[in-house]
Design brief:
The protein has 378 residues and is an alpha/beta fold. The protein is built from 13 helices and 13 strands. The strands form three sheets. It has a seven-stranded parallel sheet with strand order 3-2-1-4-5-6-7, sandwiched between helices.
């Protein structure tokens, strides 16, 4: 099958959806499919003629760029066009949405698929923008039951075309990390118990809670540090400046270490050498948080915030340890509890490894290939 994956962002652009598309493209190609990725132009993406082929050609995703987008797709001549939505590069442009209306009207020969990485999170107006995709796609894919349920609530006629395929880890998994590198840095304090946090530094990651929680532990004389797999750039981003100022005011420069941007092997090395991952999301643990999925994939003991709704496949006390969002006292107690209870950490690691099977890439690739093959036969 010749598959065209469409994404507004692609590595090295920092975007979770773009990272997910990169994983999907590489793994579909390894499974024997011919894969093309159509993404934004001028975004430092290196084009490639190998499999997967990377086409950084789309100069705008606004509605007036639809015809150019169609020309790029026509040159690829795919059997399947698979749009991933949203992604950073679209910048709310409507060309990806209108693509589905055009395909229906023109009866284009290719079959259309959309993966909605977020749906229930959008308000009514945001979900209305997605109407063309949900209405006209041959297959609508959501990454979790909550999003899928909201799609059916809004569009009952989509039920026969809806499929749940979860996210996979954007940084590999425990099963794949056989030759991971040792971290290429020296932590400022070797006497501390370093807990890991990773992902893009954003307000929803819980920094306003993590920093005072760490201060509580320090004031209590406890030897904790936070190893952050990510890059702090206060000179570029206002929120990063705010985080840097909070760290400075708390006197935590030796207790919070930022690794900077790391490749997949380096991230694997850190995850394999540290047992506890701290992810206090302000909006609670969700199955479309890629950093949460990655921590499961590596079988880590995860300290995170209680989900705002029931999650399939994972639960507190077995697959992760949940605490109240926006509560630095609860987070400090959770960090202390996991650091001092090896039995609980062992239990959570075992639970994470069990849950990881549901989010494993071989399973996900089989589901996607099966969906494509069904559409080819229809």
């Amino acid at each position: 099958m010749r598959i065209c994956l469409v994404s507004g962002s692609y590595p090295p652009v920092r975007c979770g959806v773009g990272d997910q598309v990169a994983q999907l493209a590489a793994r579909l190609a390894a499974a024997g499919e011919e894969v093309h990725v159509l993404t934004s132009a001028g975004a430092a993406v290196e084009e490639s003629g190998s499999n997967p082929s990377i086409h950084a050609r789309v100069s705008t995703w606004r509605l007036h760029g639809l015809h150019a987008l169609l020309r790029h797709i026509a040159r690829i001549n795919p059997h399947i066009v698979h749009v991933h939505y949203p992604s950073l590069g679209y910048a709310k442009g409507l060309a990806p949405n209108a693509l589905f209306i055009w395909r229906q009207a023109a009866r284009a020969p290719w079959r259309s698929v959309v993966t909605l990485h977020e749906y229930a999170m959008f308000g009514r107006k945001g979900r209305l923008r997605l109407w063309p995709m949900v209405r006209f796609a041959h297959r609508v894919i959501c990454t979790n039951q909550r999003d899928g349920g909201q799609v059916i609530k809004d569009h009952a006629q989509a039920e026969g075309r809806l499929q749940i395929i979860p996210l996979g880890s954007n940084v590999g998994s425990l099963a794949e990390a056989t030759k991971s590198q040792s971290p290429a840095f020296t932590l400022p304090r070797q006497d501390l118990n370093w807990l890991v946090h990773f992902g893009t530094i954003m307000p929803n990651k819980g920094w306003e809670v993590m920093i005072p929680a760490l201060q509580r532990l320090v004031r209590g004389g406890l030897p904790f540090g936070l190893l952050v797999v990510g890059e702090l750039q206060p000179e570029r981003y206002a929120y990063h400046r705010r985080v840097a100022e909070m760290i400075g005011r708390g006197g935590l420069h030796e207790r919070i270490y930022f690794t900077g941007y790391l490749n997949q092997e380096e991230i694997a090395g850190i995850l394999l050498s540290h047992r506890v991952v701290v992810q206090p999301y302000t909006d609670g643990a969700r199955l479309n948080h890629s950093s949460f999925i990655a921590a499961l994939a590596y079988g880590r003991a995860i300290l995170t915030t209680d989900p705002l709704y029931l999650l399939e496949q994972v639960q507190h006390g077995r697959h992760f340890w949940g605490i109240i969002p926006h509560d630095d006292r609860a987070l400090a107690e959770g960090m202390k509890r996991l650091a001092q209870n090896d039995g609980l950490v062992d239990k959570l690691q075992q639970g994470a490894r069990e849950a990881a099977a549901y989010f494993a890439w071989p399973r996900i690739i089989n589901l996607y290939r099966g969906a494509y093959q069904q559409l080819m036969k229809a």
